[in-house]
Design a protein that fits this description.
mainly alpha
Length: 239
């Protein structure tokens, strides 16, 4: 637990370095502009598709009653906006993991782990594959669990669990790609799976804070870099 907290503290310190501050805005900005562009081109198609799907389910009769009937014309728009917000955030995470992580890793390594040997067990292709797997699994779990979001206690827990999975799966590979060998990467993941999920869940809570979540992807990446490099260094000292 101590190293999970230490990773977050060190990530916060690293975040205010000029090089890291320069990275904070653009992943989220690119993600927002990307989805705004798609929304401008396909909003009518998305609305029609979602309306057709709702009409084919029992939800249509439920929405036609009481208060929901008065706002039914706006519900599809509301649902689309609710879907787009997490999609934009996840897109920013992926952009950070694939494009910003190398610069972040170099910065943290030079300042905190200058003696840590680079064994370069990861590749760019591996990073892309890892990101694709993370997003596919996350989306499948999100769709499968969607009915459970209607149950209020579970609706509070599920987003945190899904966020914990996505964060640890998305960033652990790139955090270790430059420095760990294939065998070391497997060892770090095996012995620290629980802590990686805990870290992913804790930093993932920031995504639910409006405005602040605009700046969190880089912070999350830094937290995983600090944790994974410290764990790799500890692993090598034990051998």
């Amino acid at each position: 637990m101590n190293n999970v907290i230490a990773a977050q503290v060190n990530a916060f310190k690293s975040l205010f370095h000029p090089r890291m501050l320069a990275l904070i805005v653009w992943p989220m900005l690119v993600a927002v502009l990307f989805w705004l562009g798609l929304s401008w081109m396909f909003w009518n198609n998305w609305s029609a598709g979602l309306s057709g799907w709702v009409a084919s389910t029992p939800a249509e009769q439920w929405m036609a009653q009481g208060f929901l009937a008065a706002i039914s014309g706006y519900l599809v728009t509301m649902i689309l906006v609710m879907l787009l917000v997490p999609v934009v955030y996840v897109t920013a995470l992926v952009i950070t993991a694939v494009f910003a992580m190398p610069a972040m890793v170099n910065h943290v390594a030079a300042k905190y782990y200058p003696q840590l040997e680079r064994k370069q067990g990861g590749t760019t292709a591996g990073s892309v594959v890892n990101s694709v797997v993370a997003i596919v699994v996350y989306c499948v779990m999100w769709l499968i669990t969607m009915p459970l979001w209607l149950l209020s206690p579970i609706a509070i827990v599920l987003p945190v669990i899904l966020s914990a999975y996505l964060n640890q799966r998305l960033f652990r590979y790139d955090a270790l790609a430059e420095h760990a060998s294939d065998a070391e990467y497997a060892q770090v993941i095996e012995r620290s799976t629980g802590k990686l999920y805990l870290l992913g869940g804790m930093v993932g809570l920031l995504q639910f804070i409006p405005i602040l979540n605009f700046f969190t992807p880089v912070y999350i990446g830094l937290a995983f870099i600090h944790f994974c490099m410290a764990d790799l260094q500890s692993l090598r000292r034990q051998h």
